[in-house]
Amino acid sequence: MENQLVELRHLASIARNRRTETGIPRVAMVQGAIPEHELAAVYDPMINIILTGSKAMTIGERTMRYDPASYFVMSLDLPAVGEVCPDAVGNPYLAVSLTIDPQMVGMLLADLGHVAPPPCSSGFSVATVTPELLDAWLRMLRLIDNPTDIAALGPAYEREILYRVLQGPHGAMLRDIAMPDTALSRVRLAIHWIRTNFKLPLRVEALAEIAAMSASAFHRHFKAATAMSPLQFQKRIRLLQARMLLIASAQSTAAVAYEVGYESQSQFTREYTRFFGQPPARDVRRVQRELRDGLA
Q1: How far is CA 65 from CA 68, 82, 236, 237, in A?
Q2: Which of 88, 101, 184, 236 pairs as cysteine with 79 (C-beta 3.0–4.6 A)?
Q3: Are 40 and 240 in contact (CB under 8 A)?
Q4: Are 52 and 87 in contact (CB under 8 A)?
Q5: Could you give the CA distance from residue 100 to residue 45 in angstroms, rounded to a whole number?
């Protein structure tokens, strides 16, 4: 697989230290030392392949590490904290990702027409990369140098990447987000509500109704899928949104706390400090200083 990785690294070498679009729908890449505040975010469902270096992803109470020997799949919109590292000899972190389109997964499943694997409870995991999966990624990234072929061949290569993942350990996870009556697909409905209404008070019973489950079953499935309780999920969405507002605007900590749904500034400050490691004002000054240094 080393020859495949060498070519993939060459094709992705134009990536910058932020999300870099490739011109291929849903395919992006990134390279180098990514600012910490950009790695703390709500991530879209994706398939992520590391070409150089390694990455740690912390989602709820779980942390997973992966490198060019493995790949990562996230099937739900999840708040996470990432950390990237160069390889052992100092080559910068380099990775490519495909944002998952559940509709395309559903069309592929309909075409396959075979018996589905057992249901999956988790919404994210890591698996060992295969030569077949790297081959599919090679065909996809070669389109960067042949943009006139993207419209005709991009969808075929995207289906092949999805197919390879469906055939691997993540197959059930990928399949379940495209099926209407699985626990993961129902959890997705609740996640969408929380993301859209994160400022509002959260009632687990109301979320359970959205997911068409009992309150106890919903709480169990939500925690299994996200490694968080619904309340923890909402708090992290609020805190990530608050950090973005504090960095981008001149609003006070109190104003931002109330804007994202907190009724108590002191509670907001405590939870912000616990999540980001520093009180809001100090954390924002640090991030803004890093942004200025990066532009210098």
Answers
A1: 11, 10, 21, 23
A2: 236
A3: yes
A4: yes
A5: 5
Give the dihedral sign, CA 250/251/257/261.
negative
Q: What is the pLDDT of residues 234-288, one digit of tens each?
A: 999 999 999 999 998 878 999 999 999 999 999 999 999 999 999 999 999 999 8
- The DSSP line for 214-263 is -HHHHHHHHHHHHSS-HHHHHHHHHHHHHHHHHHHS---HHHHHHHTT-S
More confident residue, 180 or 224: 224
Q: Give the separation between CA 34 and CA 9, rounded to whole angstroms.
A: 17
**Looking at this protein, which amino acid is placed at residue 21?**
E
Give the model's pLDDT for residue 114.
61
Which of 200, 170, 185 lies closest to 77 in space, CA to CA?
185
Provide the pLDDT for residue 275. Answer: 94
Contact yes or no for 122/78 (Cβ under 8 A): no
